[in-house]
Amino acid sequence: MPQAFTLENGVEVKHHDVGVVEISPPTATKDIVISSGIHGDETAPIELVDDLVKEIVEGRFVPTERTLFVIAHPKAIHAYTRFIEENLNRLFAGENDHRNEECVLANRLQCHVKEFFSLSVNSEAEHSRERWHFDLHSAIRDSKHYMFAVIPASSHATDIRPMSSFLQFSAMDAMLLSRTPSSTFSWWTGETFGALAATFEMGRVAPLYKNDMTEFEPLKAGIKALLSNQTLDESTSNQTFDIYKVSRTITKTDDAFTLAFSNEAANFTFFKEGETLAEENGKEYVSEAGGEAVVFPNAKVAVGQRACLLVKPFTPDLSLPLYVNVERDPGPIAAS
């Protein structure tokens, strides 16, 4: 049942649903959604969110920004499985029919986020508040970049340089800029609400409470800095930060689809120009001019879903606004 209480420091805590908790300080300049557990076997994000909420409720950390914390899929978490019937992170594109529990859950989560962001437009001053969304995941394979973020494409003129600053401040390894719409949670919040949104990949999957959470301390420190309205100075991080743009998406259109390399290949594995990447009913996909790296390769996805992202290094001019535009190269283009 929904319940609410106010801490001695004035922070209000509202329990909206199983795994959905809103933190509301007396004043705020940002509305932030931090979600985890979209895939039940990606447990480090769940532990991170749980720790943050505990610190707030126990008064050990006092945020200044309004935040919605989400642990999305309890049943899949308890079963230690990615999903029960359907990939939840492909169901955020509006109202779903009720064909399975993931569809029902996606509808509920969209309602909670819509209400959370809608409450920030009650006045002109509140309408100007920044909206953020971090959807925290863990990769199911090795990666050249242990910690990276995927920035979804949007038809909004949302300058993502503050997100880039946050990622560097938090010692993330890389940022990947998308070019096509999708139906992921972070795409939906970016496209629907103009939020600064990203899907974070935090290391590798592991059983619950078997993660080395010290690996994620810089990210946790970055989140706490954002939640307490501290300046995010990326120059304080000495870590290399790489930026990529998606060059192509390979979609599986038939069960005959196969990858030309191991399904366990690490994210950001590079293929030279002309090397074969995949094959489907006689159609061959080869690496384009200059070569391409693969991200999220998976020949076992359902027909119609993304089987692989192909990416190239990208160096934007960060003296200019950086927009991640639908079907265009990222850069200083205000709308798609």
Which key features would you list for this structure?
336 residues; alpha/beta; Aminopeptidase; OB fold (Dihydrolipoamide Acetyltransferase, E2P); 2 domains; 13-stranded mixed sheet; 3-stranded antiparallel sheet; globular
CATH fold descriptor of the largest domain = Aminopeptidase
| Count of beta strands | 16
Pattern of helices and strands: EEEEHEHHHEEHEHEHEEEEEEE
**How many strands, what sense, and barrel or not for the largest sheet?**
13 strands, mixed
In CATH, the homologous superfamily of the largest domain goes by the name Zn peptidases
Spatial gap, N to C terminus: 42 Å
**Total discrete domains:** 2
The top-level CATH class of the largest domain is: Alpha Beta
Name the beta content range.
Answer: 25-35%
> Could you tell me the mean pLDDT?
92
Any guess at the CATH architecture of the largest domain?
3-Layer(aba) Sandwich
Structural class: alpha/beta
Given the C-alpha coordinates, what overall shape results?
A: globular
Lateral strand order in the biggest sheet: 1-2-3-5-4-6-9-7-8-10-16-15-12
> How many DSSP H or I helices?
7
Taking pLDDT < 50 over at least 5 consecutive residues as the criterion, the unreliable ranges are: none
Please state the CA-atom Rg, rounded to the nearest Å: 20 Å
Active site: 201
Domain AstE/AspA barrel-sandwich hybrid: 240-313
Keywords: Arginine metabolism, Hydrolase, Metal-binding, Zinc
Organism: Enterovibrio norvegicus
